């Protein structure tokens, strides 16, 4: 058999079991037997650790320094920064100009700004990191398609794409959010999100939490009405009930009403938000803590007349 292993050994000692020492402080590669320097200016690939204390007598644990890498961004942009202070020699300007040719700094910095905006929106409505990262990944894919010359995306405003990516990410990660919540968060009209969704579903390929699924397999009506079972109802009851300052016993009663109505088809054809609103309104009237129909409908994101109709059917 041919030995394909690559071995580093000292050309003077030629020891079959070499003793090569990596001196990262000096940046040298040294033979431990004879002291011959085999290489210089080696790069330290270890993690950077420092002890931020006045003295080492306390044996304080070292801390990792350096920023966390973002897999969604170009690592070249994160690791390369050139100072503009060069004493007026113009060297830094030339270096920055060369760097800009290597990396598309403008687009990458714009991507960083969008990612911060998506993260800020996700934090405002309590979306976890998985949903936020999914929305960022969807937006990055859309921008890559735009850069490749996708004409249909060039006419869409940035905020429309951001809102749609957040909406799709919520669906893919099974984190229920109503259409009204996304519209209020992003200030984008419902119609524009629907149009942008129909556009993105043709060009993006989305991965769910457990399996790969195309956006085309999910209809816009399914996402809008958010009818996906009892877990969706429980989530809506918990969030809307908390916003209405309802005690746990009323929320539990409303959840039972909504789940039973969904299972026996009492409110067939109604959206989950309407079903939840009617159940909450029903539960508050069965207890002392009553809420007005306008207040419940506003929190749940449905019209007052639709909620009252569903309430009468219950």
Automatic annotation (TrEMBL):
Coiled coil (UniProt feature): 132-159
- Keywords annotated in UniProt: Coiled coil, Metal-binding, Repeat, Transcription, Transcription regulation, Zinc, Zinc-finger
State the residue spans of region: Disordered. Answer: 52-93
Residue limits of the TFIIB-type domain?
A: 6-39
**Domain of life here?**
Eukaryota
Extract the GO molecular function terms from the UniProt entry. RNA polymerase II complex recruiting activity; RNA polymerase II general transcription initiation factor activity; TBP-class protein binding; zinc ion binding
Q: Where are the transmembrane segments?
A: none
Single GO cellular component annotation? transcription preinitiation complex
Q: Which SMART domains does the record match to this protein?
A: CYCLIN
State the family named in the UniProt similarity comment for this chain: Belongs to the TFIIB family.
* Subunit structure, interactors included: Associates with TFIID-IIA (DA complex) to form TFIID-IIA-IIB (DAB-complex) which is then recognized by polymerase II.
So what does this one do? General factor that plays a major role in the activation of eukaryotic genes transcribed by RNA polymerase II.
Please identify the protein, giving its name as recorded.
Transcription initiation factor IIB
The lineage, from the top, is: Eukaryota, Fungi, Fungi incertae sedis, Chytridiomycota, Chytridiomycota incertae sedis
